[in-house]
Design brief:
By secondary structure, the chain is mainly alpha-helical. The protein has helices at residues 46-59, 72-85, 90-111, 121-129, 135-154, and strands spanning 2-6, 26-32, 35-40. The protein has a 3-stranded antiparallel sheet, covered by helices on one side.
Amino acid sequence: MLRIYRRHRTDCRFTSERYRRCTCPIYVEGTLGTESIRKALNQTSWEAASELVAAWTASGEVGKVKIEVPPITEAVQKFLDDADARHLGWQTIKKYRHLLEKRLLPWCESKGMRFLKQIDVDGLRVFRGTWDDGALYATKNVERMRAFFRFCHQAGWMATNPALAVKPPKVHGKPTLPF
């Protein structure tokens, strides 16, 4: 359990660790999990220090704030909004929409998946198995799927990118004959 307190400066007229109305620095001490801590929070506002310590407690680790993970539908929408903001071509955005909104979201809904943490490598392999595309188009869809999950991983919503372990199908191209 973590406890916050003030360490008053020598020129401060207050001496109580619990006094909240001065501008002396705030410290934290205690344990969180197995980690023992005693350090300055670099805060002078009692409310801001309380919120910071509450965020540490919610994440279970000192110095890390738990990120609110959106549902799959919101993550897809944020990814598509980001693609618009990056000024990608309309054909590219159309292909992302087709893969994510027309294929991934209905598949997740049919499997009862609402959150990103429910999607794993095996699930993505099953999802890839539902495609009846040619090898080249399926390879491009795997690349698009990796881009979406890379976006989610970089946003901090997922610990790892499960799409990296999904292998694309083998493309057998026809050799080009010379003139």
